[in-house]
Design brief:
By secondary structure, the protein is an alpha+beta fold. The protein is 22% helix and 26% strand. The protein has 2 domains: 213 residues, no CATH class; 210 residues, SGNH hydrolase (Rossmann fold), CATH 3.40.50. It is built from 10 helices and 23 strands. The strands form 6 sheets. The protein has a 6-stranded antiparallel beta sheet with strand order 7-6-11-3-13-14, with no helix packed on it. Strands 1, 4, 9, 10 and 16 form a 5-stranded antiparallel beta sheet that branches. α8 links the parallel β20 and β21. It is globular and about 55 Å long.
Length: 438
């Protein structure tokens, strides 16, 4: 579904939401708040609710990577308007906020959610801006290292639509938890403008997502959530800003074009520079914790997850210290599969894409990639294979990206390359249950 078609559905969804959500939101049993107070376990486990009225499904997410540089006191006295793009629509919504990399409690005094008036706009669609509460209160304190799930609100959320999530605090706090590679323009304003429908106060553009880590929607008839779990290639680091041209976005579009398949939300949990085995180096904290360490946080805790698509391993090989033991990477990927299976989640795994021409390339490092890919293609690592390598490589020079798919650094794809990656996913492989073991 295109962005324009998502907005075209708005009028119909508003009418549906008014009827469908009244009964849902009368009580908090099915949709209860996920507030985590100081001293409680900060991890949110927002699994799908089997209530007959519908279920929670993830429509958008971003993995918190590190603390934003230059924000030792947070962003006091500023409104942060994060712009995020939905994958699936629903009749009610809730958001997750994270203070994972903060060093002090974050006190938010005003939080709102709205549909954007137009793609990428800081202005809200008239009548859509809604104040969010937390355990029935308009103010929430998120402890350092913690996260919080908002109370649900009635809001018609179309698929393929931009939402505005606006946060304000007048207080100092620790460093801002953020996702640095948004490929989406968000906005800042001085003062409390969280309740503004007009976006004119938001004069400071920003390339980051701050504090917001997930948006879930409540709706009947959804099959669940697909999580794309990976590194900069999943993060879409070279995709066109504001165009929603990461490969998970193209996968969302493919699913929207197939009425014969169950409707599924798609979440992008990529972190640029991420590795399977090693945490970020102190010199590059934005690379995030290792995939093994963050899998529970960024995959298992997401709402309604049925399938995860893993795209990882290249940074283990090319970043120093180089991981030259292919078996170690393979074992790490198998561990992700075992953890997913323990939660009934099916795992699709991508082969590692070519990188000859990249600074630091050596045939010995490429041999490690080939060994990992051989194990993946043999079917001993994941439930099904997505051959990203075959989709992107130059058939005449298979250690290179196809020129049309090479962004210029010989590692990251162009928009066309990201679309080719999404086309490589067999949509039928998203269905079915996870086996107990490979």
């Amino acid at each position: 579904m295109t962005r324009k078609s998502g907005y075209a559905l708005l009028t119909a969804l508003v009418a549906v939401a008014a009827l469908a959500c009244t009964a849902i939101l009368m009580g908090t049993g099915a949709l209860g708040s996920g507030l985590r107070r100081p001293g409680s376990v900060p991890q949110i486990h927002a699994t799908a609710d089997p209530a007959a009225a519908g279920s929670w499904t993830g429509t958008w997410a971003a993995a918190p990577a590190t603390a934003e540089p230059g924000t030792p006191q947070g962003r006091p006295g500023m409104s942060i308007r994060d712009v995020v793009h939905t994958s699936i629509g629903g009749n009610a919504a809730r958001i997750e906020l994270s203070n994972l990399f903060g060093t002090a409690p974050l006190i938010l005094t005003h939080v709102t959610l709205a549909r954007a008036a137009a793609p990428g706009s800081p202005s809200a669609s008239p009548g859509s801006l809604t104040a969010l509460g937390f355990a029935g209160l308009p103010v929430v304190t998120i402890p350092a290292g913690g996260s919080v799930l908002s109370d649900p609100v009635r809001l018609a959320v179309p698929a393929a639509t931009d939402l505005l999530i606006t946060l304000y605090t007048p207080y100092t706090s620790g460093p801002v938890t953020y996702h640095p590679t948004a490929r989406q323009t968000s906005y800042l304003a001085y003062g409390d403008h969280a309740g503004d429908t007009d976006g004119t106060a938001f004069t400071i553009p920003s390339p980051y997502w701050r504090y917001v880590t997930a948006v879930d929607v409540w709706t009947p008839g959804l099959h669940g959530t697909v999580v794309a779990f990976g590194d900069s290639i999943t993060d879409g680091i070279t995709s066109t800003v504001g165009a929603d041209h990461r490969w998970p976005d193209f996968l969302t579009a493919r699913l929207g074009e197939r009425p014969d398949l169950p409707r599924m939300g798609v979440l992008d949990e990529g972190i640029s520079g991420n590795r399977v085995l090693a945490d970020a180096a102190p010199t590059a904290p934005w690379d995030g914790p290792s995939a093994l360490r963050r899998f529970g946080r960024d995959v298992l805790s997401r709402a309604g997850v049925k399938v995860v698509i893993v795209e990882l391993g290249i940074n283990d090989i090319i970043e120093t210290p180089h991981q030259t033991d292919a078996q170690a990477i393979i074992d790490g990927l198998r561990q992700l599969t075992r953890e997913a299976h323990a939660h009934g989640i099916r795992v699709l795994g991508g082969t590692i894409t070519p990188f000859e021409g990249l600074h630091g390339y050596t045939p010995a490092l490429d041999a490690v990639r080939e060994d990992v890919n051989a194990a993946i293609r043999a079917g001993t690592v994941f439930d099904a294979v997505v051959d990203f390598d075959r989709a992107l490589r130059d058939p005449h020079h298979p250690d290179h990206l196809l020129p049309a798919f090479d962004s210029g650094d010989h590692l990251h794809p162009t928009d066309a390359g990201y679309e080719a990656m999404a086309q490589a996913v067999n949509l039928q492989d998203l269905l079915g249950s996870a086996p107990a073991s490979l």
